[in-house]
Amino acid sequence: MKGYFILFFIMCIFLVSVSAAEISTIQVTGDIQFFSLKERDAVRFDYLEGTHVIKLDNIDEDKVTITIFPNSNKNTGNNDDVLPSKASLRLGRDLVMLDLNKDRTRDLQLGIADIENGEVTFFIEKAEEITTSNISDNKQNTPPTSGFNSNVVWTVILAAIALALVLVLIFARKK
Question: Which pLDDT score is estimated for 151?
Answer without folding.
Answer: 58
